[in-house]
Amino acid sequence: MSTTDNTAQVSATAGLAIGTLQNDVTSGDVGLVKLNRPSTFARLANACTAGDALYVGATGQASTTGTVRLGVARNAQSANTVVEVFLV
Known about the structure:
By secondary structure, the chain is mainly beta. 0% of the residues lie in helices and 40% in strands. It contains no helices and 8 strands. The strands form 2 sheets. The protein has a 5-stranded antiparallel β-sheet with strand order 4-8-7-5-6, with no helix packed on it. The chain has a 3-stranded antiparallel β-sheet with strand order 1-2-3, with no helix packed on it.
């Protein structure tokens, strides 16, 4: 954010809206975001990048391929690590 008058602006990660900013912040500062959707954590079967669709994999781990969609990855992670997932 480049101004301090930005309360209620949409916050996004990887270009995907995740919530609404709850306070005024300047660029580089941390702000409070009310999430549009709840999130959970999942162990990854393979690497992902922020914004990737994640699915329930055959082993019960999250995967970037599959048929049952779990949600959207909040950040990039490597295989066999834990990622935050915005539920859809």
